[in-house]
Amino acid sequence: MTALLEARHVTKVFGGGLFSKTKNLTVALEDFSLTIESDPPSITAVVGESGSGKTTLARLILGLTPPTSGEVLYNGKDLRSLSSTERRQFLRDVQVIFQDPYEVYNPFYKVDHVLETPVAKFHLAPSREKARALIEETLHAVGLRPEETLGRYPHQLSGGQRQRVMVARALLLRPRLIVADEPVSMVDASLRATILDSLRQLNQKFGISLIYITHDLTTAYQISENIIVLYRGSVAEAGDVELVVKDPQHPYTRLLVGSVPLPDPSRTWEKEKMPADVSTRGSGATRGCKFAERCPYVMQVCREKVPPLYRSNPHRAAACFLLQDAPALGTEDMVKVFVAASPNGTSRG
Ligand code: SF4
Question: Which residue ranges make up each domain of the chain?
Answer without folding.
Answer: 249-343
